[in-house]
Amino acid sequence: MSPAAPATHFGDNAPLPHVLIAVNLLALETATAACSVALLTADGSFSRHHVAPREHTALIFDALDACLGDAGIARDAVDAVAFGHGPGSFTGVRIAATLAQGIALPRDLPVIAVSSLATLAEGARRRGHRGRVVAALDARREAIYAATFEVGDTAVARLSDDAVMAAEDLVLPGGADWLAAGNAWDVYGARFAAAVAALPRAADSLPMALDVATLAQRELAAGHGGRAGTARPLYLRGAVD
């Protein structure tokens, strides 16, 4: 699996004029069947994660308010907003992008777009994996979204861009210590090449907002981000939910 183009960041983030570390960073992830919200503050992390297909609109605001309540802060105390920009459900990625815009725009907050596939790799890092991760999600219509990453002690490095393909076409670059992350193996496991199908599996099969927040925090520390208008979904194909 080869990169389609050079990739500098995990999201479509324009450089900020100065380095910013958000005190209160809100993260949203709705690209899959999981409706996930997380908040990083100086006092720790707070999150809600529900696997509830097609119920994101009904759940997202309650999850957001629950995280803010747990942290003891108001919505206007949020300093930056991150969101999983996909690839994933056409409707799902739009929900997170629209909400991120809505929260960020009135106060001109920084917005950080994060790949939902990179989020799976970060989840593997959080749970202790070190080595390579192939992240793949069900893209419906007999296809998957996939990308590969190198996971270190403190960061996740991209090896290939997010792409849409048939499960049979997923080929790993060389190297050992591969871990499979994502729900594509649940749906297309028998169609992967034998070496890919036999990989050990990560504990989490869907991306979590807590990992979106961690990736976004690193982006902000590096001076990357954008304003509300940059909060755009990543569509690798036409509308499929």
Give the tags.
5-stranded mixed sheet, 2 domains, disordered N terminus, 241 residues, alpha/beta, globular, Nucleotidyltransferase, domain 5
Architecture per CATH nomenclature, i.e. the level-2 architecture of the largest domain: 2-Layer Sandwich
Rg over alpha carbons: 17 Å
Terminal Cα separation, in Å?
Answer: 25 Å
Relative helix content:
25-40%
User: How many distinct domains?
Assistant: 2
Mean of the pLDDT scores?
Answer: 89
- The name of the CATH superfamily of the largest domain reads ATPase, nucleotide binding domain
Helix and strand run: EEEHEHEHEEEEEHHH
Structural class: alpha/beta
What would you note in describing this structure?
The chain has a 5-stranded mixed beta sheet with strand order 3-2-1-4-5, with helices on both faces. Strands 6, 7, 8, 9 and 10 form a 5-stranded mixed beta sheet that branches. With 241 residues, the chain is an alpha/beta fold. It has helices at 56-71, 90-104, 116-126, 184-188, 194-197, 209-221; strands spanning 25-29, 34-41, 44-51, 80-84, 111-114, 131-140, 143-151, 156-158, 163-165, 178-181. The protein starts with 24 loop residues before the first strand and ends in a 20-residue tail after the last helix. Helices cover 27% and strands 24% of the residues. It is globular and about 50 Å long. The chain folds into 2 domains: 25-116 and 207-230, 2-Layer Sandwich (Nucleotidyltransferase, domain 5); 117-197, Nucleotidyltransferase, domain 5 (2-Layer Sandwich), CATH 3.30.420.200.
